[in-house]
Amino acid sequence: MPLTRTPFPQRDDRNPVTVQVEGMSKSYGTQNVLQDVSLSVEPGEIFVIMGPSGSGKSVLLRHIAGLERPTSGTVTINGADPMLAETRNRFALALVFQSGALLNSLSVYDNLALYPHEHTLCSKQDIRDRVMRALRILSIEHAAQKMPSELSGGMRKRVAIARALVMEPQLLLYDEPTSELDPIMAATIAEIIGTLREEYAVTSIVVSHDRDLSLTIADRVALLHQGQVATIAQPDDLKASTDPIVTEFLNPRIDVRNPRFKSLEGSS
Ligand SMILES: Nc1ncnc2c1ncn2[C@@H]1O[C@H](COP(=O)(O)OP(=O)(O)OP(=O)(O)O)[C@@H](O)[C@H]1O
């Protein structure tokens, strides 16, 4: 079957985009995972989605990426439906997966060049320039000819971000970009996310458990709790909040005499 070839986004199309989620709910069977979620991400903003495990962060990100249709409500990118390939191509929307999702049989360079190569309106020289620029921004030019199996976890994450950058995206979505990284590598990734906003004028939405990362890089944070938006606030306001949902999330109490996991035993 021939590949679908769509135009590679041109530089002068590029401006950071707005993401609007309005009254969005999502159910799987009888399970209501997201309920009446509304939020608006401004152009060029770094917007972090936090919340306990199972609160619906990844499901929300998948809807913004246009990978799933809401049960009700809407998600739009500059007013357009992200489920349409035309929308995703127009804004060069890029998703950085938790696992990196690199192709193990291709070198780092080829992993980065693959997608633009399939969109042949971009010349070979242009692809090379984009790939090398992305590798340079992430300080991993030396890894261009390495295979993914030769890379550490932190390097794989950087390669995954570089691969997204080759698209010159206007919207970058990150799913747990610092999971499984040591604190120094996590800080490096946080710096990279901040730098990219300047270098690429991109709107960034980051799903993360990492409080330090979130409160350092975010312009605003949305805290999800049981599928609903508990609050949307700037990091300093979040830290100063007295809302019990926020304080329990940011400073969980550890009580060995009354561990939370006992209630899990009871529920099984
Ligand atoms: N495709 C699916 N089908 C059925 N249930 C799903 C599906 N995807 C997610 N869920 C359920 O939705 C809920 C929220 O999942 P989600 O992955 O968004 O949580 P999360 O906040 O990202 O959690 P974590 O921080 O642990 O990754 C979970 O109960 C999960 O089992």
UniProtKB/TrEMBL annotation:
Protein name (record): ATP-binding cassette domain-containing protein
Keywords: ATP-binding, Nucleotide-binding, Transport
Domain ABC transporter residues, every copy: 19-251
Metal-binding found in the keyword field: no
GO molecular function: ATP binding; ATP hydrolysis activity
Gene3D superfamilies in the cross-refs: P-loop containing nucleotide triphosphate hydrolases
Organism for this UniProt entry: Synoicihabitans lomoniglobus
Domain of life where this protein originates: Bacteria
